[in-house]
């Protein structure tokens, strides 16, 4: 069986003491195995990054960016392979996988701008014959730990910017779908990146804990579920590292009575069920203001959901594919059963979805749950499946209170024709990314991505300008070149 290993110091490595199965979620079959790195293997990757750092740090930013330009071309030329690797291990349909890759490429397009982003600030004559400037220096060896749901894009949120800023990187992708990240990293080496600047290790908690505890690692970027994000953030910062850890989500959409219901329905169907709901920006709660809006929304959704097509990743006419594992499929089904037990009404039930020829795949069909309420598990917890719950409220204030009281604060949106209401909403809601008649307000690569509350531990958001700040530390230099022969006596007052 094909074993997925590691990429250390430019070499493919296998460390097969511990192996874990990788599934093809469309068929339910084990397709490959991944080697889970030992502490020693991770330490080797860190050592390779540390050895590459002195030369890479002193490589001019324009030369670093030039390698990223070549990398972008290689990614575009290899799109088909990457999309297939994502489909085989994640189950994403090709249109969705290609969209994920395109978003990743946009992050490295922004990273190509490094010479401009790293210019720093300069002030002449801050004192007599004294100039001062601030520069952004790299941190050294930095690491990224990424989730299964965007196996190509989320690593590309991290290392292109970290690397063009002069750092060396150790990536630990999700052990559930590691192949696309490994293949993409090999393309960066082909583009001319020196050995050791980017290393990829596959693994589980043992690999993560090694990165968190090794004193050579200066900073950690994490994306995954909230309990692990909190653990990573607490451990990394306790160990003196810089850390940004993004967690889970429960994104609400408010549907106002004046909304264009047809548009809102289409938008919700895509945002709730696209990628089987396995997106941290998926809309999983629709908050309908008033019973009239709620009834019309539920009827519209029920009608539209009849045409949803779930199936194998190989058929690009499918709307969405399977869930990542059998265990996760069972968990999603348990949330739906639990919602019925708690008194919500299941309007469309995806628990018995079957796909001809793929009877063992991990499929759940689009599911709609009405009359959900705070306190119910289907409302409070992140389901991470193709499940949309409807909560009915009487006013926009009630809807906003619901969102503000929820533990997560990743994304949200409002559907309305009222500009004043929309402005009040975006100004006051306690959520990091806000859409107005836009269901998935994922910031473009030259802004930054991040939630509030328990969706983000740390201060700086992912990619965009915040990534430059995260992957550099500021140094301010004050310099004086007195004219020959000019002598100054000692000064005892604080310099001003
Ligand atoms: P996960 O937390 O299970 O895994 C994420 C990473 O942490 C993986 O690399 C995994 O190997 C590692 N990990 C898992 N358990 C660990 C442990 N006990 N100790 C140390 N490391 C451990 O998340 P997932 O299931 O792969 O991804 C889905 C989650 O990610 C969802 O909650 C989703 O909302 C979230 N997510 C958030 C964002 C965001 O930007 N906020 C983006 C994408 C996904």
Structure description:
This protein has 496 residues and is α/β, with parallel strands linked by helices. Helix content is 39%, strand content 23%. The protein has 16 helices and 23 strands. It has helices spanning 39-57, 61-77, 79-90, 94-111, 114-117, 153-164, 179-190, 205-213, 226-238, 261-273, 291-305, 326-341, 377-380, 396-405, 419-428, 464-470; strands spanning 3-4, 6-8, 11-13, 19-24, 29-35, 121-127, 130-138, 141-145, 168-172, 198-200, 217-223, 242-246, 251-255, 283-289, 345-348, 367-370, 387-393, 408-409, 411-415, 433-436, 452-453, 456-457, 472-480. The strands form six sheets. A seven-stranded mixed beta sheet has the order 15-16-17-14-13-19-20, sandwiched between helices. The longest helix is centred in the first third of the chain and has 19 residues, at 39-57. The protein is globular, with a radius of gyration of 25 Å. It starts with a strand and ends in a 16-residue tail after the last strand. Nicotinamide-adenine-dinucleotide binds next to helix 8.
CATH H-level superfamily of the largest domain: Aldehyde Dehydrogenase, Chain A, domain 1
- The side-by-side strand order for the widest beta sheet comes to 15-16-17-14-13-19-20
Shape estimate: globular
Structural class: alpha/beta
Bound molecules: nicotinamide-adenine-dinucleotide
Give the uncertain stretches in residue-range form.
none
What's the CATH topology label of the largest domain?
Answer: Aldehyde Dehydrogenase, Chain A, domain 1
The portion of residues forming beta strands comes to 15-25%
Q: Could you describe the largest sheet, including whether it forms a barrel?
A: 7 strands, mixed
Helix content: 25-40%
SS element count, helices: 16
Number of domain units = 2
What is the count of β-strands?
Answer: 23
